[in-house]
Amino acid sequence: xxxxIDILKEYSAIVVKSIEENLGTIEPQGLQxxxxxxxxxxxxxxxxxxxxxxxxxxxxxxxxxxKTAAAIELIHTFSLIHDDIMxxxxxxxxxxxxHKVWDEPTAILxxxxxxxxxxxxxxxxxxxxxxxxxxxxxLATVADACVKICEGQASxxxxxxxxxxxxxxxxxxxxxxxxxxxxxxxxxGAIMGGADQEVIxxxxxxxxxxxxxxxxxxxxxxxxxxxxxxxxPIGSDIAKGKMTLMVxxxxxxxxxxxxxxxxxxxxxxxxxxxxxxxxxxxFNKYGSIEYAHNLALTNVAEAKEILEILDDSDxxxxxxxxxxxxxxxxx
Length: 331
What we know:
single chain, mainly alpha, globular
C-alpha cells in the first residue's frame, strides 16, 4: 500500500495547488484561512485523485479534469467542516476542527464558501478549454452528489437512538453519505475524460462500490484495528451508540439476553471499555464482524470486475490498486 500512498501524494499536490490558486482571493483573510485550513491538514485526497486517474484511464486529458477534481475535494471538505459542527467533534485529520480553531459561525461560513467555490471552479474549466457539455454534465453530477450527502447525513442523524434500523436502510444511508461523492468523483473523471455513456455509467458504479466498501471498512476498523493506527479508542462507535453495519447485523441475529445486553450497552452514554469489549464479543458471536468484512470484500471484487470495460493502462492498474487500498488501509 506504500506505493498507493505515494501516488496519492503526487495527485494531492496537483489538487492542493489548484485549490490554493482558487481560494487565494477570498476575503477577509480569516475566512480564507478557515476555508483552506483542512485542505492543508494531510488528508489522502482519494476522491480528487480518482477523478484525475479515471480521466486518464478513459483516454482523456487529466488536465481538463483538475478543477473538477479540486471541486470535489472542496465539497468533501465542506461536508467535514459541517459534520464536525453537528457532532461537536474536536479533532479532524489529527488537528483541531475548524470550529475549534475559529468559532462555529466562521466554520459555517468557511464550509459555505468551499461549497460555492466548488461550483465556480467546475464552471471555470470552460475558460481553460474544457468542453462545455462535459462541464455541464460534471456540474450536474457534483450537484446530485451534494443533495445525496445531505440526505445521507439526515438519515444518519435519524438513526441516533433508533435501534430498529434495517440493513437496506443502513446501506442506502452509507451510499448517500459516503459513496455518492466517491461515485461522483469517478463519474466526473469519465465525463471530463470524454468517455461514452456506457463507460461513464460503469465508472459511477465502480465509485459507488468502493465508496460503500470504504464506509464499511471504517466501521470494521473501529472494532478490529489498534488505537494507535486508528487515532481514537477502539469501539468508539459502540460507545456513542452509533448504528453501523455490525450493530445492525448483530441486533438482527441476536435475541433474548444477548440482544438485551447489546441494546443496554448501545444506549448507555457512559459505557466503559469493558462494556465496549463485551459488545465486540457479541458481534463476534453472531458473525457480524465477519459479515461486514465479507461484504466489503465483495464490493471491492465487483468494483474491480467493472474495470474490465477499460483498455489496459497504468491508470487502470492504479484504479485496481486503489480499490484494494480502500479495503486494506489501516486507518
